[in-house]
Amino acid sequence: MALRLVGSTEVEPEGGVVFYRVTRYEYPEERYDEIMAWANTKTDQLRAINGLQSVDTFPTGPGESMIIAAYDSEDVFNAAADTVLALLGELAGFMTSAPMTSSGTVDWTTRS
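^ thats the sequence. predicted structure below, dont judge the formating
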């Protein structure tokens, strides 16, 4: 697998994902299955967001998880912000603290 630097001369890395939004959230551990059941009801709504490549979630410890969403671009993310914020608003009913979010554009990747 070749390493690639994504610089100003390249608009996007091969594979099309150039912008990530990462959200860490905490919840009562005993509600994990309920949260996953809720997430399963949102699959079609998420898939309908134009330019949203994927959404992955995984537990990072007891009562905490991470969501990683990959978008075609920051503009796509911004265009989808109302929909995404509405979904996070629903998820907030399970949270025990405010979510912590980070986002950014890919500037280096191992994808070839």
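The longest strand covers residues 52-61.
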